[in-house]
Here is the input.
Amino acid sequence: MRLLIVEDEKRLALSLAKGLTAEGYAVDVVHDGREGLRLATEGTYDLVILDIMLPGLNGYRVCAALRAAGHDVPILMLTAKDGEYDEAEGLDTGADDYLTKPFSYVVLVARVKALLRRRGQGGGASPVLTYGDLKVDTAARRVFLADTEATLTAKEFAVLEQLVTRAGEVVSKAQILDHVWDFAYDGDPNIVEVYISTLRRKLRSGLITTVRGAGYRLEADR
Here is the structure.
């Protein structure tokens, strides 16, 4: 899952990014409303954490512009204000949830997971993705292969989640990097191969096939 944080309090933004990255998300951070709108419009994000008081464009206008353009990405709005009018205005512009500063990090993570779960369920579908004898519980973040649970790190889970979401299709290295690592990552792109190798070792060697020059494909019961 890839998240975008649009927050001008740099210490808070970086703290949230660090915590959410440890949870297994790829996180991009910007501190300006116009830049946030540009990235949210051009990028593929699973959720946007959006402050209201921003330079350039405030959060209300960013949210309204995204909805007007037809983007349905879940938006969690943050603000230091605490009046009913502010909450109503945020929700009226299309925000999915609202959190008032100061807030507990645990509460923020719970809200993020709830919004992602709601989006993934699509109105009632199970958060458990099944492909052959592989089961990936995206809500509990647990993985089972032939009823045996596999212990994965947050990054390993995120890579596997990208593959199982598009099971049977070829997923390129670039697509995995875009969704599992943030846009500031400038390390070796072959890091994806390292995680693929680890997943094969922890799950089953034939589970993930390399399609030369194209990417990787999850294979059922191999």
Notes: Residues 105-121 form the longest helix (17 residues).
